[in-house]
Amino acid sequence: MDDSRDKKLDKAEFEKGMHDYGVNLEKHDVDALFSEFDKDGSGTIDFNEFLSSLRPPMSAGRINLINQAFKKMDRTGDGVITIEDLKGVYNAQKHPKYLNGEMTEDQVFLMFLKSFDCPNNPDGKVTEEEFLNYYAGVSASIDTDAYFDLMMRNSWKI
Q: Which of 29, 52, 63, 116 gets the highest tally of CB atoms within 10 A of its CB?
């Protein structure tokens, strides 16, 4: 659908793509659907917006586990996970790139944070919303609440 190859869809590409894939809707329905996908109101749909729109909603139990893990990581309690929060919670000294001297402890921490960080704003700080969004993606690939619960408890020791 991305005819311009800019890794996002504008409304014209979206409308053409819907038609090309046999989804024939009235113009007002296409506009409403586009607006639903365009979470940030930028006039385009990026890949993350597209995926987040397709994800099934998470159960309250899953959200609760994600919030528990976030609170465990956010040692300062300020609503943002930083390198300082990770010290004492995540052991960077066991990471292979630290062990071989390729990275410092802070570089390993930053790499860890980037896995949760918003790709549109990679600032090395992870908000609760970014953390929840990361796990919404993980959650979409896990069928049962019981398995998600086990995975979160084992990963975060909660």
A: 116
- Give the distance from CA 102 to its chain's centroid: 27
Q: What is the pTM of this model?
A: 0.73
Cα–Cα separations (whole angstroms), residue 82 to 5, 73, 90, 109, 125: 34, 9, 12, 9, 5
Could you give the angle at the alpha carbon of 88 between the alpha carbons of 86 and 85, nearest 5°?
Answer: 30
- Whether residue 113 contacts residue 126, with contact meaning beta carbons closer than 8 Å, is answered with yes
CB 1 within 8 A of CB 14: yes
